[in-house]
Design a protein that fits this description.
Layout: H1 7-18, H2 28-40, E1 44-48, E2 54-58, E3 67-72, E4 93-94, E5 97-99, H3 107-119, E6 128-133, H4 141-148, E7 156-159, E8 167-168, E9 170-171, E10 173-182, E11 186-187, H5 201-213, E12 217-218, E13 222-223, E14 225-234, E15 240-241, E16 244-253, H6 259-274, E17 282-287, E18 289-293, E19 299-303, E20 305-306, E21 309-310, H7 316-325, E22 337-338, H8 346-352, E23 357-359, E24 374-376, H9 377-399
Parallel strand pairs: 3-6, 3-7, 7-23, 8-22
Antiparallel strand pairs: 1-2, 2-6, 4-5, 5-24, 9-21, 10-16, 10-17, 10-20, 11-15, 12-13, 14-16, 18-19
Helix pairs in contact: 1-3, 3-9, 5-6, 7-9
This protein binds zinc ion.
Length: 400
């Protein structure tokens, strides 16, 4: 007999997952536990793919396209344990509130979504694919891999990132760019023998400010914004003129902005600030990359760009979802439809792969990535009861 997909069992599972830490690239133990739970709940085709995403299916009646329910397996660093009121990895429930790293981002919703999908066994119009992905917190390698592979082909995606019971339909993208200025190192006592890359940093920072003065605005997503967040030099000695300086830029971008657009625009702004640059100095602008290694052992150089996305608030999938979810306060009417402030894997599923994507989950954005991360069980109970109607309505809307 499969395990009973009740709310109480889901919360017990969420608390257990909180007790298994797992930063991006170290999700193996969490993945293994999720895999076992999917098997216990009676999912079909339970498996992990090459990068370690965990996938299971609740087979439908074949009358509607499949829907993908998605959370991520990784969490962000918990920081100083002493700064937490309840220990980050205890999974404690105090006064009907679940506490700890991942309580709402995203192990609580992961458990609720997984259990809700199990509860729809033999009732769903189409297949419900539950896939929980790796590396969401570092740009979404797991989701990109999942959709690049032909393992799943959903008609819509429902994300479990916190919406506080609203229906979320997009967000700005996030890119990390680097301006690298190369010069010639030398002893600080004889600057005439060196070419100091720091001489150009002022112009580069001014160019970033120029960019910020001229940001685009979207009526739903708000403004894009670019800020300098770090200047690094190499070598780091205080009595050496460095041969390299790197300025790091965090850029929150609107849809239809490509990596090439960003690099071209920033390069143009820098050119107009710096004019002719002295001999011995040069610079280039590029998207920052980091080497990412999955817990399954795959290594990738990953460009630090999470794309943006925005669904039309009148899209039939969005309208069906808002109607099915209803209002958290119990009043009649549709759920509020709005964007998130933060970035999600929806940038891949919708922004890049063009699959209708929305989010619905309990939890308040303001607790995400903080040392007071928590999930109200009253809200979780309400959201858990809304998932069946949501999934059914989204499948119905895809059939239309
Ligand atoms: Zn998240």
């Amino acid at each position: 007999m499969p395990k009973e997909p009740s709310f109480e069992n889901a919360i017990a599972f969420a608390a257990e997952l909180i007790r298994i830490p797992g930063l991006s690239g170290r999700e193996g133990d969490v993945a293994q536990r999720v895999l076992e739970e999917m098997q216990a709940l009676g999912f079909s085709d339970v498996r992990a793919d090459e990068v370690g995403n965990v996938i299971g299916v609740t087979p439908g009646l074949g009358k509607a396209p499949p829907v993908l329910l998605n959370c991520h397996l990784d969490v962000v660093d918990e920081g100083d344990h002493d700064a937490w009121e309840t220990p980050p990895f205890a999974g404690e429930i105090v006064d009907d509130v679940l506490h700890g790293r991942g309580a709402m981002d995203i192990k609580g919703p992961l458990a609720l979504m997984t259990y809700a999908a199990a509860g729809l066994s033999e009732l769903a119009q189409g297949d419900i694919i539950v896939a929980h992905t790796v590396f969401e917190e570092r740009g979404g390698l797991g989701m990109k891999h999942l959709l690049d592979s032909s393992l799943v082909n959903p008609g819509a995606v429902i994300l479990g990132e916190a919406t506080h019971g609203d229906v979320c339909i997009g967000h700005r993208g996030r890119a990390e760019l680097e301006v690298t200025i190369e010069g010639i190192a030398g002893h600080a006592s004889v600057p005439e023998r060196a070419s100091n890359p720091l001489d150009l940093v002022g112009g580069v920072l001014a160019a970033i400010t120029d960019l910020a003065d001229d940001e685009r605005c979207d009526p739903v997503l708000g403004q894009s914004n670019a800020v300098a967040t770090m200047v690094r030099v190499l070598p780091e000695s205080h009595n050496v003129i460095p041969d390299r300086a790197v300025v790091v830029i965090d850029w929150r971008v609107l849809p239809d902005t490509s990596e090439q657009d960003m690099v071209a625009e920033l390069s143009a702004r820098i050119r107009s600030r710096l004019g002719d640059i002295p001999e011995g100095l040069s610079y280039h602008v590029e998207l920052a990359t980091e080497r990412q290694r999955t817990y399954t052992g795959q290594e990738n150089d990953w460009g630090l760009f999470t794309p943006s996305f925005l669904m039309d608030p009148e899209h039939r999938v969005v309208r069906a979802a808002a109607e099915a979810v209803g209002r958290r306060d119990g009043a009649t009417g549709d759920a509020d439809v709005r964007p998130w402030k933060f970035a999600t894997d929806g940038g891949w599923s919708c922004g890049v792969f063009g699959i209708p994507t929305l989010g619905f989950a309990p939890g308040e954005e303001r607790y995400a990535h903080t040392n007071c991360e928590q999930l109200s069980l009253e809200e979780a109970r309400w959201a858990f009861a809304r998932y069946p109607a949501l999934v059914t309505a989204v499948q119905e809307s895809l059939r239309a």
